[in-house]
Design goal:
The chain is of the alpha/beta class. Helix 4 links the parallel strand 6 and strand 7. Helix 1 packs parallel to helix 6 and helix 5 crosses helix 6. The radius of gyration is 23 Å and the shape is elongated.
Amino acid sequence: MTRPRALFFGTPDFAVPCLDALAALAEVVCVVTQPDRPKGRGLELLPTPVKARALALGLPVLQPTKVRTPEFAAELRALNADVAIVVAYGRILTRAVLDAPRLGCLNVHASLLPRWRGAAPIQWAVTSGDAESGVCLMQMDDGLDTGPVLARRALSIGPNETAEELAERLSKLGAQLLTDELPRYLGGALVAVPQDAARMTLAPILEKTHGALDWQQSAQQVHDLVRGMTPWPGAYTRLPAGATLKVHATHLVEHASDAAPGTVLFADRAQGLVVACGRGAVALDAVQPEGKRRMTAGEYLAGRALRVGEVLGAPKREEERA
């Protein structure tokens, strides 16, 4: 039996398992990924994770700087693909590109649509305290993740799970969804179900300011923000002297207090670094002072960096833009 011809669009680590799954199901005639970017202190030009995996699999790679040109769409049409799979590619595709494969373009999206349409669905799901997430196989149209859904898989989000940890699980779930459902789609067995636009929520591109901790919020909301902003942009707060303190990990603490939000309730190795919130309190388990490495709360407190009664504040605007 002739294997279907497929295109693959993707860029980050999250997309790699789906590329592997597609390569097992179809003849991947081209992998499209974003251009190499300079990274690290030496600004060395490095391939995207998808490019690195595609080359290891011996697959042809395209890295267009522009995807909205007639020439790019024509190049894709000439490949005579049956279908295209798009996973976290990072660019909006034109109608001409979407129509290039015979059976159109399908997206493996990391949320349970219509919840969390947009660029950062995993991070916003965790930050918002969602108990459930998942992946959808969706027919792409001209809108932002607005196409009808062909299939979905759900999973529970752990109470202390970070966005980084959830992304790893969802990337594997997406690959399994593709393995299970792409043959059924190619065989005409899947029914496309329109999304309920009234239930839509947006997951905008993350910015550094999204990581600013607001101690007026509840302890649960603070904890969820720390989890959702891991590993990037990272949660942070302002120390009494004005410097920024990154917060990498927290846990909820059962402690009743009428102290003002942001007040340090405990600051010792026995009880940890505990901060009052608008409702409840959180312990800061891992922090990173400006210009220093990540460290445990115990290591941080060894230098008497904070004392009981001091108040952490919202980062200043100039620090947010730094």
